[in-house]
């Protein structure tokens, strides 16, 4: 199995290491590579003639991104309007924006509310609106990066192959372990699995061409291995999530942790934070009582391995444990006042985990096993060298 170097020293040596907001210098791309990035952009933004496109933005979004979406909309015979909110951190849509959204058929959004506000979910479900969330496309220059140029169809096949690694049926436990002592367990029922498999993201649907869809651009970490709403859970439901996560790093910290830090769950709730470091004290001050919002897994082989800002790593097999706290973190508000996520959210990160779904291994020592799926390898051959495409991770 491929061994990854992910010690603190390795992460610190990376030119693209990022846990706090900072500009990363992007290398120039060739004309051929640039065209692949633009082609992916135009395909994912599947705007149709006659669409009414609404864009929900924030003051820190690169204005060229708005111009790109507007230009594509007008070029396809669609109408366009944008609404700039105060930030990305809305958890519910403001009333004054709802009048604009009601008319939309296609929405491009930077807002956190896009995924979880029942109002937004209802617009997709009841009106068939197609939504694209652009958490990872805040700078037009990202079109020149390998992760933006990675074939969208191949990424979809990787996602479907990961989905095939879940058990076919029955109840099971999703278990995460690692060399630091992590032993974290999420009970799955067959009903939860069925609900999850029906979601368009687990079908590898990365193009916004189906009524009611919700996709991400730039397509990066793929669907979460666990997300309460995706498996049909209500906020008050308790399923018995338990165990302790010993992360290597977390969003909001400039460097990976040099001292052990453990976050313990009992009956779905964070009950303790173990460790003596200042980072452990930060976590202890606000994570107690928090709940798991997501267990995310990277899927894009060309996403920089050690770039975890703003919402966790997107490299295959790298995990992020998203926890929502009961109150905002004063520490995060100090170090990331303009963060794209709400300050109640914390993404713990591991690069060397093993993930078992029942008796099936999905991730081994930080390597996403779906990259070795025969259908994935066969499709990769149509785009180039499968080894280079799937296993040459940028660091």
TrEMBL record:
It comes from the Bacteria. This is Leucyl aminopeptidase (Aminopeptidase T). It comes from Muricoccus roseus.
């Amino acid at each position: 199995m491929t061994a990854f170097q992910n010690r603190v020293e390795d992460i610190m040596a990376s030119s693209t290491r990022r846990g706090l907001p900072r500009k990363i210098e992007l290398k120039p791309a060739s004309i051929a590579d640039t065209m692949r990035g633009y082609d992916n952009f135009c395909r994912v933004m599947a705007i149709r003639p006659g669409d009414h496109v609404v864009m929900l933005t924030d003051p820190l979004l690169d204005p060229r991104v708005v111009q790109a979406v507007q230009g594509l909309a007008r070029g396809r015979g669609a109408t366009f309007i944008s609404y700039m909110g105060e930030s990305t951190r809305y958890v519910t849509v403001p009333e004054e924006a709802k009048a604009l959204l009601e008319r939309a058929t296609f929405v491009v959004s930077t807002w956190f509310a896009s995924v979880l506000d029942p109002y937004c979910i209802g617009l997709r479900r009841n009106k068939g609106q197609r939504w694209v969330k652009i958490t990872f496309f805040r700078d037009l220059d990202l079109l020149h990066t390998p992760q933006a140029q990675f074939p969208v169809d191949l990424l979809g096949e990787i996602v479907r192959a990961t989905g095939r690694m879940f058990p076919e049926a029955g109840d099971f436990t999703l278990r995460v372990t690692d060399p630091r002592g992590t032993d974290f367990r999420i009970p799955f029922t067959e009903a939860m699995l069925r609900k999850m498999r029906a979601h368009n993201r687990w079908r590898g649907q990365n193009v916004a061409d189906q009524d009611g869809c919700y996709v991400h651009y730039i397509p990066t970490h793929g669907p979460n291995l666990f997300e309460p709403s995706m498996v049909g859970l209500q906020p008050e439901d308790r399923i018995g999530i338990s165990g302790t996560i010993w992360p290597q790093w977390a969003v909001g910290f400039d460097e990976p942790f040099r001292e052990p830090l453990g976050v313990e769950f009992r009956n779905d709730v964070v009950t303790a934070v173990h460790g003596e470091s200042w980072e452990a004290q930060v976590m202890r001050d606000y994570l107690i009582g928090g709940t798991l919002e997501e267990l995310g897994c990277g899927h894009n082989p060309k996403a920089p391995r050690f770039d975890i800002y703003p919402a966790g790593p997107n490299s295959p097999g790298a995990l992020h444990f998203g926890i929502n706290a009961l109150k905002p973190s004063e520490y995060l508000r100090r170090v990331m006042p303009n963060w794209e996520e709400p300050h109640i959210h914390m993404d713990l990160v591991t690069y060397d985990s093993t993930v078992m779904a029942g008796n099936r291994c999905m991730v081994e020592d930080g390597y996403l096993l779906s990259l070795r799926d025969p259908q994935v390898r066969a499709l990769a051959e149509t785009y180039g060298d499968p080894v280079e495409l799937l296993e040459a991770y940028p660091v």
